[in-house]
Design brief:
There is one protein chain. By secondary structure, the protein is an alpha/beta fold. 36% of the residues lie in helices and 19% in strands. The chain has a six-stranded mixed β-sheet. It has a six-stranded parallel β-sheet with strand order 9-8-7-10-11-12, sandwiched between helices. Helix 1 packs across helix 11 and helix 10 packs across helix 11. The protein binds NADP nicotinamide-adenine-dinucleotide phosphate. The site of NADP nicotinamide-adenine-dinucleotide phosphate (NAP) has 25 residues, from helix 4, helix 5 and helix 10.
């Protein structure tokens, strides 16, 4: 197992901003990747640091990053939307999602994109199937749900049902897609309507934090509700700790295909590293480092 790279007088900086940031797995994964790359390329001298930036300090922090020539950084809660007006260029994809999670320095200021969509898609694309007849149910309508909607649009899914707990928030969510994805077939529903959607849904995605540690006994759907899904349905939980969640344990018991959030996390991080270093990321090392950190007892 690789360790964090050594710091030298020539070390260039990468990082992640969020508030709080102490829970982030990105420094573990990215420094393992940088150490691995440096083993084969001694001149590749980078370190990746966590930066806890309060919302009111965001623009000062970004100006400071420019002053110290930070090469690039990831962006997590609560800055994914707020960073957008501070960038000189925003990719079309990030504009569609409405959020940026990866930023890099250019000669003309900061550029940003969104690698969550690619991260979410990676395990689904590996299944190599046709999605054109797929009805999707997305539980939750927050930031991660936005990346999932764009991903479902890219897959060409037949219809996307988004479930939320507040009608006005759902309406705003629906409204936000009308201009950016006019061809999207999206419907909104309150939670009490979920069960009637399940018999016709082949992909169900949990984007709520229900079931996330420490609330590991919770699940956004009951075991009985999961039995309403078709036998070939896929249950995708964006949560990566615990692993598996209660939702995925029950889904597996029902014989459904399950996907957890860890691969999305690794793939979005790998895609960011590729942008910064312009070379492939060592995904295997990143996966191993993340798993070792999350589940030390399993190794
Ligand atoms: P967010 O913007 O706060 O959205 C959370 C959504 O869940 C909101 O729609 C919220 O409803 C809903 N929700 C929260 N608690 C609920 C409850 N008790 N009952 C019903 N709905 C509830 O957060 P996010 O950034 O989208 O992240 C959501 C989850 O995805 C987190 O667990 C996060 O760790 C995970 N995630 C994983 C990855 C990965 O790489 N694997 C990436 C991004 C996010 P309201 O709108 O009504 O508040």
């Amino acid at each position: 197992m690789t360790t964090a790279p050594g710091i030298t007088g020539k070390t260039k900086l990468l990082g992640v901003i969020g508030y709080p940031i102490g829970h982030s797995l990105s420094p573990i994964m990215q420094n393992a990747a940088l150490a691995e790359l440096q083993r084969h390329q001694p001149n590749l001298d980078f370190a990746y640091l966590p930066f806890a930036i309060k919302p009111e300090d965001l623009s000062k922090a970004i100006a400071g990053f420019q002053a110290i020539s930070l090469r690039g950084f990831n962006v997590t809660i609560p800055h994914k939307q707020a960073i957008v007006p501070l960038l000189s260029q925003v990719s079309e994809l990030a504009q569609t999602v409405g959020a940026v999670n990866t930023v890099w320095a250019t000669g003309q200021g900061w550029a940003g994109t969104n690698t969550d969509v690619l991260g979410f898609l990676a395990p689904l694309k590996a299944l190599n199937q046709d999605w054109s007849q797929t009805n999707v149910v997305i539980l939750g309508c927050g930031g991660a749900a936005r990346a999932v909607v764009v991903a479902c649009d890219q897959l060409g899914c037949a219809r996307v049902h988004v479930v939320g707990r507040e009608q006005q928030r759902l309406q705003n969510f629906l409204q936000s897609w009308l201009e950016v994805l006019p061809g999207l077939n999206l419907e909104i529903h309150l939670w009490e309507e979920t069960e009637k959607l399940l018999p016709h849904s082949h992909l169900l995605v949990n984007t709520t934090p229900i079931g996330m540690a420490p609330n590991i006994d919770q699940s956004p759907l009951s075991e009985t509700a999961l039995q309403l899904l078709p036998r070939d349905a896929i249950i995708y939980d964006l949560i990566y700790t615990p692993n598996p969640t209660q939702l995925l344990r029950w889904a597996a018991d029902c014989g459904l295909t399950v996907i957890d959030g860890l691969e999305m996390l690794i793939q979005q991080g790998g895609a960011a590293l590729e942008i910064w270093l312009e070379q492939p990321a060592p995904l295997g090392v990143m996966r191993q480092a993340a798993r070792k950190w999350l589940f030390p007892q399993q190794d």
